[in-house]
Amino acid sequence: MWWVVGATVVVALVAVYLIWTAGRVERLQDRAQLAARALDAHLLRRAAAAAVLAERRDGVELYAAARIALDAQPDEREAAENDLTRQLRSIQLDPTDADCEAVIAASRRLALARQVHTDLVRDARSARGRPLVRLLRMGRRHTWPRYFDIDDPTLAIPAADVSSR
Questions:
Q1: For the chain, what percent of residues have pLDDT higher than 70?
Q2: Residue-by-residue DSSP string for 25-61
């Protein structure tokens, strides 16, 4: 009689663990997808702010890089964003100018969104890579989460401008 109760308890504990693990994998996967959407929104905001800055400064190369980043297909997006970051670093940004401030702020938010996305993708990949999760195919409803590999988008403000703030 006791072995039936013991077996039932063990089966119940294993079932609870499997349900908890499947829920965790789903939550991490959903959060990684939401972070990817937020990252995409911040990429678009930065490119739009850079395009406005380029239009006001007559920066042809910066405007071209911003338009390419705005119009890039998903498989070309990383290269386009890296090019835009290089263009933004090559120009002199004045933090007192409203357009420059918008680009700097968008770049800071983008850096934070990229870090959150990277952390969530790492956690989701780690959870999906566990042997039991792979064996039971718990993450099969979702595509494998991908990192978005770009240069650090934070823009440096000249030291003289930082001290005057």
A1: 95
A2: HHHHHHHHHHHHHHHHHHHHHHHHHHHHHHHHHT-HH
3-state helix, strand, coil in the chain (%, to 5): 75, 0, 25
Task: Judge contact between 139 and 126, C-beta under 8 A.
Answer: no
Cα of first residue to Cα of last residue in the chain, in angstroms, is 77
Give me the chain's average pLDDT, please: 90
For residue 81, the Cα-to-chain-centroid distance in whole angstroms is 13
Neighbours of 120 (CB within 10 A): 21
List the one residue out of 66, 110, 103, 106 whose CA is nearest residue 84: 66
Share of the chain above pLDDT 90, in %: 69
Query: 77-90 and 60-71 helices cross at what angle (nearest 10)?
Result: 160
Cα(33)–Cα(143) distance, integer angstroms: 10
Closest Cα partner for 46 from 91, 78, 85? 85
Q: Stretch 86-92: mean pLDDT, rounded?
A: 90
Residue that has been written with the tokens 């089966």 in this structure: 11
Q: Which pTM does this prediction carry? A: 0.83
137: region left, alpha or beta (phi > 0 left; psi from -120 to 50 alpha): left
